[in-house]
Amino acid sequence: MTRALPAYFRSERQIIIDAEALVKEQARLTPERFLARSDGIAADQRLLRLRYGQFLGEEQEGKTPPPTSDAAPLPSQRFGGEGETLEQFGHVHDESEAATLLDPDTRTKLKAALDAMWQAELGLRHGAPRAALPFAYRALGFIKQVQQATRIFLARVGPDLPVVDETRRLSGKRDGLVRSALPSLTLAEVDQAPATAWRALGDPAGPTAMQLAALDRWARANPTVVDPLAVAAAIDEVTRDPACVRCRAALGGLVWAALPRPAPGVARRPRGDAAGRRYLDALSGAQ
Known about the structure:
There is one protein chain. With about 290 residues, the protein is mainly alpha-helical. The chain has helices spanning about 10-25, 30-55, 80-90, 105-125, 130-150, 195-200, 210-220, 230-240, 245-260, 275-285; strands at about 100, 150-155. Among the domains are: about 10-60 and about 95-155, Four Helix Bundle (Hemerythrin (Met), subunit A) (Up-down Bundle); about 195-260, no CATH class. The protein contains ten helices and two strands, in the order αααβααβααααα. A two-stranded antiparallel ribbon has the order 1-2. About 15% of the residues are buried.
């Protein structure tokens, strides 16, 4: 049984060792086998070059393969959405929270290492590992210099806390301290037009023209409605055919998705029946 090894990146030193071993075995290999092994080492050199190129913000080579017939459908995007547009056409090369800044000298050395890797890959692609070895050694030297360079990390900005009064610390005095009370949970004032229209859609009589008009005004003015045009089209269908069950269900689904969520509240514990109340009163009297 063949054991599958995990995929990993070869280092520049491993690429040099493989190229030198290939040069020594050239006399015992056929030209086709020699060229295939040289091309395999060139592929490893390319992957390593792309990996180091990410530190300089270089683009990844290749294009995204086209979707196949059995591919999952892409999620629908709202036209003109700023986040979707930036995600589709923007180029984000690093994370601001963990960005590594390299000084100009280190960036120059890393760029020289990438150029040497490119020349080494070119020689390996043409089946000339002996000509590619000097460039591989040069790339290894630049990589060692980059690894020994000093890195500058972005420091996180901490909160600006007030100075502690040492005279009051551990004294137990609470003069001047104000305990902020938690705000009470109150029901937010919401427009009753969508809720009224949604309940009327389930009645046999259906919503009235005034209710549908109020719902249309609410959908156009409410920013929480994802697709106001779809709501307007569903209202038109219900207006033309009030007995259409499918039209009512479609409009009800759109309205339900845009309804505001109720504010959370604390449920009062039930008092229980008469026997339970007598038991609680007995416990209170025993105390």
